[in-house]
Amino acid sequence: MPVSVLCFNNSPVKTLSFIVGICMIGCYAIKAQTNIDSVPGLLIRELIKINGERAPNILPIDHFSNGKFYKVEINSEEHKIKYIYIGRVNTCRAGGCSGSSEPATQSESEYFDYYILYNANCLVRSVKVYNYQATHGQEIAATGWLKQFIGYDGSYSLTGNKHIDAISGATISVFAISADVEAKTKRLFRLIGKQTGGAMTD
After folding, report:
1. Contact between residue 116 and residue 40 where contact means Cβ atoms under 8 Å apart
2. How confident is the model at residue 109 (pLDDT cuts 50, 70, 90)?
3. pTM of this structure
4. Cβ neighbours of residue 17 under 8 Å, at least 6 residues apart?
5. Helix/strand/coil (H, E, C) string of the chain?
6. How many CB atoms lie within 10 A of CB 125?
7. Which residues, in sequence order, are CB contacts of 38 under 8 Å at separation 6+?
């Protein structure tokens, strides 16, 4: 049986390189997307440690372009993790940060992936950054700094230097994660039909 060889500029070698390059780009794009869709191992280990259940059953309950909410099936809700949010936050523009405190758009930005663990009352129990792909602001991944979000219930706006400590040189990342934790916590309360301790604001 004859074998057909697709040629690019009359060169099967160039054609092979071109096809391999396209495949690599496609695989990278798929990998970047699955970073948000999949549940990171760090989260599973923390969930097992807190809930004390070796094989937690995690069910998706809400999703959108840059994140997803999950519900954890547990035997007893007291002091355990009931809800999870995993998402991506855009920070600096690709190539570096500008002076603006506004996060860049999806198409031009660097980013980080993180998760929030909530108890049955939708209070933040833990926040972890597990994949930081930006040139500035890595300090927000520090466990000590992220502890500031523990106990947050979405009933007030997270204000820099009031509720959340600022970090010199990481202003954009601080703004981005604080705004996202606030928005997602309020969304979770709306999602499960609860009210926060104070007035709900968008």
Report:
1. no
2. confident
3. 0.72
4. none
5. CCCCCCCECCEHHHHHHHHHHHHHHHHHHHHHHHHHHCCCHHHHHHHHHHHCCCCCEEEEEEEECCEEEEEEECCCCCCCEEEEEEEEEEEEECCECCCCCCCCCCCCEEEEEEEEEEECCCCEEEEEEEEEECCCCHHHHCHHHHHHHCCCCCCCCCCECCCECCCCCCHHHHHHHHHHHHHHHHHHHHHCCCCCCCCCCC
6. 19
7. none
| Distance in angstroms (rounded) separating the CA atoms of residues 202 and 186 | 8
- The span from the CA of 60 to the CA of 37, in Å, is 10
Using the structure block, give the residue that is written with the tokens 């499960």: 192
How many Cα atoms sit within 13 Å of 200 on the Cβ side?
A: 13
pLDDT of residue 53: 80
Q: Are 111 and 99 in contact (CB under 8 A)?
A: no
Q: What is the pLDDT of residues 12-41, one digit of tens each?
A: 444 444 333 433 333 333 334 444 668 899
Q: Are 8 and 15 in contact (CB under 8 A)?
A: yes
